[in-house]
Amino acid sequence: MSVKVSCDRCGPLELGEWEIAVVWCGPDGEGYSFVCPGCDAIVHRAAPPRVLRLLSLVGARETVARITEDEISFFADSFDDEAVWAELA
Ligand SMILES: [Zn+2]
């Protein structure tokens, strides 16, 4: 399915849900963001929680903060890695 969004420079756009990132708690508040295919700008739009839930239901990526999946898994792996703790000691 496609999601109707708009860019300040390019006007109305239709993006795939996978191109939308839902932001629950970002520096600009909750909303969603996407990279405009027309001008490469990162566009952030404020949106109420019900809209964000809908976006995540249809398959938009969810981001809680500026932490990537890789960083989370690295962090989780580090808990089991004694060498990491040894460095801290
Ligand atoms: Zn644009």
- What letter string, H or E per element, gives the SSE order? EEEEEHEHH
What structural category characterises the helix and strand content?
Answer: alpha+beta
Main beta sheet: 4 strands, mixed
The coarse silhouette is elongated
**Could you give the distance between the termini?**
51 Å
Which residues sit in consecutive blocks of at least 5 with pLDDT less than 50?
Answer: none
Q: Which ligands accompany this protein?
A: zinc ion
Alpha plus pi helix count:
3
Assembly category: single chain
Number of strands: 6
Percent range of helical residues: 25-40%
- Which band does the percent of strand residues land in? 25-35%
Average pLDDT = 83
Q: Looking across the biggest beta sheet, what order are the strands in? A: 5-4-3-6
Summed up, the domain count is 1
What is the CA-based Rg, rounded?
17 Å
Task: Give keywords.
alpha+beta; binds zinc ion; single chain
